[in-house]
């Protein structure tokens, strides 16, 4: 007899909301970053001077590239090595040249790379060109694994209605999975990494740290670019460690206020706002008003979730749930915190826009909330917690938890598609704003990829070590 998995009822969801308090592990780092010792001043000066020389050599390469394949290969290399931000104007000019120029539209690898880079940089190029690479059976004709991988990565810059890209992802994923075990180690690592996280969704600095040793093994590598990438990463690492030292000092001071918990925390928060306003100065201190307003939104939303928990209320639909839980994932607050500390590009109009709760930020918050809930629902229902979006979906559609997980993964993909469409849509905001929001979505994707790493931070200890402790080797 075939057993049918049980579907969810409201009592099932409510019974999962037990009142035991969750526990969290202590920090793994202690005062590690407080003891950080930077390199000697002469060594740092040499690193900085050498990096400047290499940077200008690479600039000549970017300006001098004049063939479409070479231009695309150079740009994707600089992006993956974290160097493209030094050549924004030159790359913009080259991509405009690529967009306006004829190219070999019979080369699937070239077509995929062109599509990827143009869409990533805001060009709303149509995906119809990929239809010509399908055979009579509907399969894509790809000569090799590199081409499959290029198509796979390009397809993830899809929007709603890009059917050919949806089909490309299904086809390339199955093909890449089939050949993975037979590939040589370096290419196998690239494919395995892509199957876990497509290129567009990777955190920039983490991709840089991961790609440097891969690029080092490539026969066609450019030694000047490689040396600059290593130096640049190591210099950034020095800066990050200095900042982490300052943050750790601040956290130690804050910890002294915790015994009375809420009262002292609130007073410390007010002091933090005051110190931020002082540091911003008279021309930018107004920005803190927006962060305060969004923190009020966060408090109200958290209070509503507490009420749900205490009353054992389960929202009737996942949309009702998201109206509150999108706020408690703190996406708007994180974005505002970032904007507050930025330069003159952040205007009052941008911060006013943020308080309109724009769809771009909603997409990011949806990705973060749903990704969080997939990884944390079972654990949280053991403790004192309200029903998650997973439980809500189970109740709304009378489905099993596993089925709810799969459908919510589809909703996450829909949010990525919507985000890409908004990213490609011209607005009054500088393009940098949309890029920052997409970066936050990438971070959420990484944090909740395997587990709830925000809660169980020991699961990303190796990543933290790779980024902030171990320099790249020459």
From TrEMBL:
Per UniProt, residues of the Terpene synthase N-terminal domain are 28-195
Q: Which cofactor does it need?
A: Mg(2+)
* DNA-binding in keyword set: no
Terpene synthase metal-binding domain residues are 247-418
Q: In which pathway does it act?
A: Secondary metabolite biosynthesis; terpenoid biosynthesis
Gene3D superfamilies attached to this UniProt entry: Farnesyl Diphosphate Synthase, Terpene synthase, N-terminal domain
Q: What GO biological process terms are annotated to this protein in UniProt?
A: defense response; diterpenoid biosynthetic process
A cellular component term from Gene Ontology for this protein is: cytoplasm
Q: Could you tell me one molecular function GO term of this UniProt entry? A: terpene synthase activity
Localization, per the record, is: Cytoplasm
Q: Decide whether keyword Cytoplasm is in the record.
A: yes
Instruction: Give the UniProt keywords, A-Z.
Output: Cytoplasm, Lyase, Magnesium, Manganese, Metal-binding, Plant defense
Similarity comment text for this entry: Belongs to the terpene synthase family.
- Protein name as annotated: (+)-delta-cadinene synthase
The organism's taxonomy opens as:
Eukaryota, Viridiplantae, Streptophyta, Embryophyta, Tracheophyta
